[in-house]
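Please, structure for the following, as tokens.
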Amino acid sequence: MTSPCVSVVLCVYNQAAYVAEAIESILRQTLTDLELIVVDDASTDATPSVIQGFADARLRYVRNATNLGHAGSLNRGFALARGAYLAIMDSDDISLPERLERQVTFLERHPEVALCGAWVETFGARQERRCFPTEPAALAVRLLMACPFSTPTVVMRRDAWLPGGFDFDAFGLAFDYAYWVAVANRAAVANVPAVLLKYRLHAGQTTTTRRAAQLAGTRLVLRQQLAALLGELQETDVETLTYVFVNEATGNPPTALIGDLFERIRRANQRVHRYDPVELDRLLVETWAHILADHEPDHGRRWREMLRRPALWSWPLGAACLRRTLRPLKTRLWKRRPA
């Protein structure tokens, strides 16, 4: 039997309402030399009958005897894959018709890249375009404090598949983030600068229903990366970087701790050269400006922290701090204008 160009693994659990659209979006790809391995993770709804309703010979249906979870099901699917390229698809999303063709072409033109994702457009509960960094150096840096890949857009070379696959036991629901970091530590990774997938947002998603568990695994990934760069860590270092990763403003953000950590990261990288220094400085400066301008509510603390750290200063930061300081004054003056 001739091996296909691409093996797509789609894992599904109780998604009878959405899985047909996901399957159809793969079977209708402009790149037709593919196999679609659908791993049913012991669904208890009508999912099996929906899948078995497809007659396309490229679809291979396997069903887990017991529920293995997403990571275990992906590992089972990739163990069965025969393609030169391995792709991920989620059971509730929709791949645009040219997705696989665009990504395989990209990988063939960039042999140094082991794995690529793409931009996505959300639909359902909220509509937005999510554009991730595209260049390998920028992505290697971004992985230090974010996950700049949308998992159902990822396509990788077969030889980029790491022994052991996705490690749920170690990283829980952050198994995919941990895997992208592991690949990026060995080879270049990239994102195709185009929207190639429609990402459905709904209340039943893992990121919605099991967020705390996913964040626990994320802390482990952040800890590993910080330890590789800084050496000895304190627990506050991990919690501080976790705050940056989550990026949700609170009434009392750890602004000083973030500034201290960013300066240590910058100095450590100057010693060990783990990341591209230009890309790292750009990320630290941009993120610091965002923290001070959008998270720090105290004007005095915002200015003190900005002036204390000249290595993290930027013109956008200065302008943002000035705007935040003048905004309440402008509001008060406007209210005092005579009628």
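Residues 230 and 268 are 6 Å apart (CA to CA). The radius of gyration is 23 Å.
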